[in-house]
Amino acid sequence: MDTQDYRTAIKHVIETYAKFRPSHGNIRLDVLFDDTHDRYALMQVGWDRGRRVRGNLIYITLQDGKVIVEYDGIEHGITDDLLQYGVAEQDIVLAFIEQPSMAEAA
């Protein structure tokens, strides 16, 4: 797949999760797509039980033909969803998991 296909796949995944509503609280889900810089996010904003709720649920970037999952706050993860929409497994990078450096791997 090319970068445009990956953009489309990422958007489908994020839009799918944006349709869900939290079971409690007054929380809004905001979809943020920046095709110019290849940044894609699903944010949560609102109130729950007297406390402010805000932050990423999903944050993905595209870089050098790779889908970089910077943050995945979905309980079961979004990797299977990306694969379902055609993103190649070797092109998905889970940036929130520390990768051993080349020196440590040797």
Automatic annotation (TrEMBL):
| Gene3D superfamilies linked to this entry | XisI-like
Stated name of the protein: XisI protein
Q: Which domain of life is it from?
A: Bacteria
Q: Which InterPro entries match?
A: XisI, XisI-like_sf
